[in-house]
Amino acid sequence: MNILSIGGSDPSSGAGIQSDIKTFSSFNIHALTVITAITGQNTIHFGMVEPVSKEILENQIQTVISDFKIDGIKIGMVYNSQIIKVIYQQLKKLKIPIIVDPIIKSTTGGILLKNSALKDFQKFIMPLATIITPNEFEARIISNMKTDSKISPKKMAEKIQEMGSKNVVITGIKTKNNKISDFVLEKNKNYFISGEKIINTNHGSGDNYSAAVIFALVKKKNIEKALRFAKQITQESIRNSKKIGKGIPITDIKKHDNIKIELIRAINEFVKIKNIYKNIPECQTNFVFSKQNPKLTKDILGINGRIVKAGKQVLVAGNLEYGGSKHVATALLVMNKKSPEICSAINIKYQNNIISKIKKSKLITSSYDRSKEPKITKIKKSSIGWGIENAINNSKKVPDIIYHKGDFGKEPMIIVFGKTPNDVLNKILKII
Description:
The protein is an alpha/beta fold. The protein has helices spanning 16-26, 54-67, 81-91, 118-125, 136-142, 153-162, 205-218, 223-239, 258-271, 327-338, 352-360, 375-380, 383-393, 421-431, and strands at 2-9, 30-41, 46-51, 72-75, 98-100, 131-132, 167-175, 179-185, 190-196, 287-290, 300-303, 306-310, 313-317, 320-322, 344-349, 365-367, 401-404, 413-418. Helix 3 (81-91) links the parallel strand 4 (72-75) and strand 5 (98-100).
C-alpha cells in the first residue's frame, strides 16, 4: 500500500515531508513523496523558503504516478500559485482519497502559503479535498472570515464546504471540561470529536493528524472512524514529544502495533453499543486479540483491568498490554490451537434471551457443564481451558460462541470468538 505526500521539506524532520515519512512508516505504509519547497527551519526559528520549479514539480508527480499504484494522497505546503496550479492539473482526474492540510504558517512563525496564492488555493486545491483539516486560524483564513470575529466553527466549515471541499474538519477548538475538540462537517451531518487537552507546544502534530487520517481512509474506514483514530494517534504523538533541539519539542509517533490499533478501535465501538451495559457480567468484560500462533497468554493483547459497568455507562478501566487478560486469553489460546484463524474473543453476561437469539442465529454454538469438571483439573489445570476444549470437542464445527451455565461460586458466561476484533463485534451485534 502506497500513500503520496506532497509538501515542503523540513530539515528538522518535525513537520512536512520528513514527518509524513515517519508517520506512514509507523503504520507499515510505503511513503511516496513530492517536494514543493525547500525550507530552512529548526525548533527555534524559521529561515528561508525556496519553492521548486514548475518543471521539477511536474516531473516528480508524473514519475511517481507512472510507476506506483497510489492509494491515497496528502497535500501539505503548496506555497505559491504556480505550485498550486501544477498540483491541480496533475491530480484533478484521480479518483482516490485526498487529504488537504492547509499549512499557512509554521509553529516558529514562517509563512508557508503566500497571501497572493490564497485565491488559487481556494479555487484549485480545496476542491480536491476528500477531507480538509485546518485548525481554527487556518479555517478563518481559507473561509475568508475575519480573524477577530466570533464566527462559529459550523459557519466556517459550511463556507469551506461551499468552496468545494467535500468534508471539513476544524481542529483544536477549546471546549468545556478541559477538552480540545474537532468540529466535523460531512455532507449530511456535523459533530464534535473531543479529546484530552494536552498542554504542550509542539512541532508536527498537524502533520501527524492529517497523515493518520489519510492512512485510515486508505484502510477503508469511514470518515468518523478515521478522524477518531487520527485524534487518538495525534494525542499520543504529543504526549511522546521530545525536546531534540534547543527549541520546541518534536512530536513522536511510535511504531504501531496493528493488533493494538485494531483492538482499540473495536473496544471503542463495543462501549458505544446501545444498552451494552446490560451485557456486562459481574466479573466484568475483557476483549482480547492475539498475535499469530500464540503460545502463551502473554502473546495475547488484553486489558490489564476490565471493561466495567458504571450505572448505564460502560468504561474501559485499564490499559492494553500483552498478558493483560488471563481468563478470556486462556479461552482464546485453547480455541486458537484448535482453529488458528480464530484470534480474538470477548466475554459477555449469560442471559436466557441472549441464548435464544444465539440459537436463532446462524452462529455455531457449543457449551459445557462446569459441574462435570474433574477435580484434578480444578486443582492443577485451568478450568476455562478444560471447558473450552470440552465445548470444542462437543461441536461438529468450530464454534463462534461457547457458553456455560455456571457452578457453585462460578458465574455463568458467554464467550464470543472471531478471526478479528471486528469479526467479534459483528457477531455481538447479531445476538444482543
